[in-house]
């Protein structure tokens, strides 16, 4: 029996039609400067409010109403607890996690169904079958978990003869649409080994006044996700804890009370702690963090971070040369444009380092070259290489499509440390991109005959020389083959399927994905820090930019659309 759609109309009251900020590209509405890709706005009101149990409802209806009540997390899901026996309401843990299913997929089966049975028994079992798509654990970590799932419920009559749930799985259940209205995405920040870059670790928390507390507790007392842990660390020492159960926020200032152990910390550690937490709380509207111990404020400055100096201009190769596209003109890049123009073979891809002092160039032959200070060096001539990617330390990454394990990280002077055991589960690789922080690398690989989007951390020695990868973290299996991959902001990836039915998938690293239609004949694209900076190149040399509800022709006559390192 399917009750979900019926009950949603009966027990849910719509309060507002406010959607969460989307990590993908704009598909409607006016052009606005907006947030960087991957950022979210401070909490919005809940879109829906659940209703209390219906008097005289049978076991299946009570269970369905209980599941629908997951849309209202107010007061620790107090409405959902009305469907439980008083004893079970004391022990049920809604914060244990989220099961995310396909809307309308739930079906219900009860051990008692006839009116005669309902009148004669005081206990009943209800089984719910659903089509699961993903899950979120107790720490807010999202992961894909597709397949049929069964949930078991035990019900009993209360003193008034009403059916109430006496036993149920911990956690809540939300369909895909409701999940992104009830929960918001936040990025906990951790340092790389140099203490110069912050690396996002995406978490999901229910919207509400306590989200700043949840993020602060996770940042101070939690740990990074397993796949990130080998390459990142927290500024908060293990013996420094949050003193109390709340973090008040007044006029965008979060007051964070710490235990006495914070009194012995040096200025550098306090500055790193403050910066790490402030950046983690940005999406909640917090602009400043103040630490206190026993009511007295600690003197904590801001820590210095490496700046992301990536230009916002588009870089292209045309018949007129290579450079930044500014005001409809191609402006040459010193030390890069002239030697690139003198290369004999046609160019197929260009990745430009931050600071624009180094370019990784792939020719139509497949060979990868480095250009810097007007010098040209051939790096990699192995057959079938994917497009190269530059990291912030000047290493140029390349790999043969048929041998994902044989990844090389080249320096401009043609020294090549080999990355051992890269993507050990993969049989082919179609694309790879290093993130702007230099900690994460993403790839399109084939695992078990299916193409997947995966990430891993790059392990480095004390001189930032790459030494290997951390464990493979699979984000999503793709239904349609793709050849292009870029970073969109700090915590999302863009995946382009080419041709007349091209699509652009925005995949949160630690969250769900979404798809938009791309221009017909899309051939390549470039990522960016913000939505407005994304560019797609068609097979006919037309360059497209996102404008309002569609892609607008931006420039023509482009031979190669270049990318900027880290995007």
Topology of this protein?
Blueprint: H1 4-11, E1 12-14, E2 48-50, H2 59-68, H3 74-81, H4 86-91, E3 98-101, E4 107-110, H5 115-120, E5 123-136, E6 142-157, E7 163-167, E8 172-175, H6 176-182, E9 183-191, E10 198-206, H7 211-221, E11 249-250, E12 253-257, H8 267-280, E13 288-293, E14 296-297, E15 314-318, E16 321-326, E17 329-332, H9 337-341, E18 347-352, E19 359-363, E20 368-372, E21 375-380, E22 389-390, E23 396-398, E24 407-410, E25 418-419, E26 428-434, E27 440-447, E28 450-460, E29 466-469, E30 473-477, E31 484-488, E32 492-497, E33 503-508, E34 513-517, E35 522-526, E36 535-538, E37 543-547, E38 550-555, E39 558-561, E40 563-564
Parallel strand pairs: 3-8, 12-13, 18-40
Antiparallel strand pairs: 1-2, 3-5, 4-5, 5-6, 6-7, 9-10, 11-12, 13-14, 15-16, 15-39, 16-17, 18-19, 19-20, 20-21, 22-23, 23-24, 24-25, 26-27, 27-28, 28-29, 28-30, 31-32, 32-33, 33-34, 35-36, 36-37, 37-38
Helix pairs in contact: 1-2
Intertermini distance: 48 Å
The portion of residues assigned to helices is 10-25%
Note the beta-strand portion: 35-45%
On the 0 to 100 scale, the average pLDDT is 89
Q: Structural class, please?
A: mainly beta
Q: What spatial form do the alpha-carbon principal axes imply? A: globular
What does the largest sheet look like? 6 strands, mixed
Number of strands: 40
The rounded Rg comes to 26 Å
What is the compact description of this entry?
The chain is mostly beta strands and 567 residues long. Mean pLDDT is 89; it is low at 2-47.
Overview of this protein structure:
Strands 3, 4, 5, 6, 7 and 8 form a six-stranded mixed β-sheet that branches. The protein has about 575 residues and is mainly beta. Helix 1 packs across helix 2. The N terminus is likely disordered. About 15% of the residues lie in helices and about 40% in strands. The radius of gyration is 26 Å and the shape is globular.
